[in-house]
Sequence to fold (491 residues):
Amino acid sequence: MGVMTPPLLLLAGLWLLGHGASAATEKAPAADVYFRIKCVDSETRAGVPLVLLRTANYIDLYSDSAGNIAFYEPGLMGQVVWFAVMADGYNVSNAPDAPLLPYPSPYDSGVKLNTTQGATVVVELQRTQVAQRVFRLTGGGLYRDSVLTGHLEDIPDSVKPRALVDPRSGSLGQDSLQVVSYQNTVWWFFGDTACGHSARQTNCDNTGMYSVGARSCLPSGGGTCDLSQPPGLTFFGEGGSPKPMAPIEPLAENTWVSQFITVKDGDDELLFGKYFKNPSGRNGVMQWDAAKNQFNEVSEWPTGSMTIDGGHPIRLFSPADAADGENYAFLSSGFGVVKVPRTKAAMVDYSQWIRVVDSGCNSINYNSYAKRYLCIGGSGLPQTGVDVPITVSWSHSMLGPFVNASKVIDYTASGSSCYNPLQVPHLDADGGKTMFIACSYTAMWSNIDTNPNEWTSCLFGANGKQNCAPTAPRYEYNNIVQKVDVSLILP
Fold:
């Protein structure tokens, strides 16, 4: 038999959506035309997302959220092909079907694989960082290669409807994450948004200018919700489409949202958050309006007011601090910790927002396994001459000081970054022994170490210029989730 022609991506997508979750063990049409490369963690055997395999003629292939790569290249099928293997936080290691072929720096080590159509070869990777990369949260093509190779069993049921693209939102990329549990569901908020029908710089035809949001299930809310699977996101717009969440004046400027706080008001649960207008710096407090399905401004802060935007409230408190956590919100950011009473009146009264610590963390939460507060620190961004990884440090007090910082995530080997990291506390597992950290992956900042005053030099269409890291298709400008075994970072 000669070399078969691969199916169209659209055909595979339509097949998947038409058959639904019940077809998890079936194969997509003509899946056997592909050679499947499965990238796995040599310790956990779990698939590793965002692994780059590169041929000698610079054909770049990236593993999907299940660690799968669907390879079909006319002229390179049915023969031995060399693949360099590169992955931030991992090194390629020996495997029975893919023995390691090491090369000294600056060359990349890799593997020689026989590209047999319909066959699978496992490439093993040894973790060099504490965190395991587990899935991409946002964007299109989450499990693209799993669909193309017909391995739908690798796709969690929770995200099968958007394995290729979210048919309702059409979202392809989303910036920094904020998350809050509200009304027995998890609410997810994102900054800039990319979609297929408009240029990247238009922010999805301005939809993303005012931030967008989505909801997913929460086990305490009842019903079926498997936290071992990635969340299934449903956006707030009509039919599950993205919609502007905080259209606050001036509308010519972006609205960035953060620091979401829930407040009990009699029998009602209210939701407040901070807004920041870029570039003017106008900022204040907003409140969720269920009737309008959006946030409205309820308080504008004075010009030059304290900076806490972009950070996250403490969600998990120690038993000793539980009462304080009920009565007050504690808001952490890189600029410190702010305390405010959990009342409707205090939310709109700037004088009741009191800074209690001058230095802070991206996010702080109590960890039941460690019996300590854990601080997610580090910008995840390159800086001039300095490697700035994402770290976890600890303290017996939620206000610090935090000590013994452990590097857990580092994307600097590729020149990329994963910025605005935060813990996603409702995903905690094993009594807190396993914690999850999300961050926004991009090559956009890769030139900031050589041009610290020109952060836009690698912005969007400029990628590929001198000193700019290569952009990873589908991963660029999206949120990646990593999990950390807390026992590995305790003293």
Remarks:
- Residues 141 and 164 are 4 Å apart (CA to CA).
- The longest strand covers residues 254-265.
- The chain has a mean pLDDT of 87.
